[in-house]
Amino acid sequence: MDASLIIKDLREKKFSPLYFLHGEESYYIDKVSQTIQEMCLEEHERDFNQTIVYGKDAELLTLQSELKSYPMMSQRRLVILKEAQDFKQIDALESYTESPTPTTIFVICFKNKSYDARKKILKNVAKNGLVFKSEKIRDYQLPDWISKYVRNNGMQINSKATMMLAEFIGSDLSRITNELEKLRIVLGENTNINEQHIEMHIGISKDYNIYELVNSISQKHTQKAFKIVQYFQYNPKAGELVVIIAALFKLFTQLMRVHFTANKSRENIAKHVGVHPFVAGELLSAAQNYDPKKIASVIALLHEYDLKSKGVGNSQMSNAALLNELVFQILFT
């Protein structure tokens, strides 16, 4: 079930006795468990009927006792096991999940990885409650996710600002939503977020960031590329070499796929390569600057400089010097 549908049911006071929330994307696990916490009990009921324990600190017998206790002056009790991936005796909860206490809502938050679907406890929860697997969002889905989130919060965002957020922050949904919430508070609703807003309030330069460097290299805007490289020399935290190499590797592998895709319409490239249509248009333009032979040599270069950045075959050059040399080799050799 989709997280939004679970949250909709929770806001309508439709509860299950068991929730097993697991998966690599912690954002949705936190969102669902927080909504349960907000909707399950009234504020005055929480002192006696809400228990939150953490996996590292949880004791099995104490937890079982909490689960089997009856509510005081309330219809239900709420027990949340957070960081359940750190609870060594989680399998011992199997018997409880076979026959849960009807007046207790038990929420298990198993974060940053998926729980073994073959285990009996998961099957019991699926039978007697609700299992939610929170999948990690893929890179190509991120721009659409950001745009949808912004719209749902009463604002708009342009493509450039969306790509800056996606490239700079990556798929850390909690951090993205925190930054967007900051913008909503500062700018107000009905604002169209642009790259100037991102630069001013989040601290990502609209001109000097990894996204702009990769874009400059892809379009062979050499002067701009070396201006950004120089900026990174004085502001190393703005562009770490290992992150730049990973971003360039992603670009050139995508360009290789573009070359070997028969139908080169923007829509087909977006589907075949797995990118946003805005990015597909940029890739089609960049593919004209790099033929497959050149792309293969660049990928070999990236592997070489990745090793050098880790000290393999390099004992003297700084990361700033390595970046300058790498960009020169890509653009001029």
Describe the structure.
- The protein is an alpha/beta fold and 333 residues long.
- The chain folds into three domains: 3-133, Rossmann fold, CATH 3.40.50.300; 139-201, Helicase, Ruva Protein, domain 3 (Orthogonal Bundle); 210-332, Zinc Finger, Delta Prime, domain 3 (Up-down Bundle).
- The chain is built from 17 helices and seven strands.
- The chain has helices at residues 3-11, 26-40, 46-49, 60-68, 94-98, 120-128, 142-152, 159-169, 173-187, 195-201, 210-218, 222-234, 241-259, 266-273, 277-287, 292-309, 319-332; strands spanning 18-23, 50-54, 77-82, 104-111, 130-133, 156-157, 192-193.
- The strands form two sheets. A five-stranded parallel sheet has the order 2-3-4-1-5, sandwiched between helices. Strands 6-7 form a two-stranded parallel ribbon.
- Helix 12 packs antiparallel against helix 17.
- The longest helix has 19 residues, at 241-259.
- It is elongated.
- It starts with a helix and ends with a helix.
What is this entry, summarized?
By secondary structure, this protein is of the alpha/beta class. The chain folds into three domains: 131 residues, 3-Layer(aba) Sandwich (Rossmann fold), CATH 3.40.50.300; 63 residues, Helicase, Ruva Protein, domain 3; 123 residues, Zinc Finger, Delta Prime, domain 3 (Up-down Bundle), CATH 1.20.272. It is built from 17 helices and seven strands.
Radius of gyration over alpha carbons?
Answer: 25 Å
Question: How many structural domains in the coordinates?
Answer: 3
Question: CATH class of the largest domain, anyone?
Answer: Alpha Beta
Please, how many helices?
17
Give the full name of the CATH homologous superfamily of the largest domain.
P-loop containing nucleotide triphosphate hydrolases
| Oligomeric state, counting identical vs distinct chains | single chain
CATH architecture of the largest domain: 3-Layer(aba) Sandwich
And the CATH topology of the largest domain?
Answer: Rossmann fold
Distance between the termini: 52 Å
Helical fraction equals 55-70%
Q: Into which percentage range does the β-strand content fall?
A: 5-15%
- Shape from CA axes? elongated
Provide the residue-averaged pLDDT. Answer: 92
SS class: alpha/beta
| SSE order, one letter for each helix or strand | HEHHEHEHEHEHEHHEHHHHHHHH
Strand line-up of the largest beta sheet: 2-3-4-1-5
**Main β sheet profile:** 5 strands, parallel
Q: How many β-strands, per DSSP? A: 7
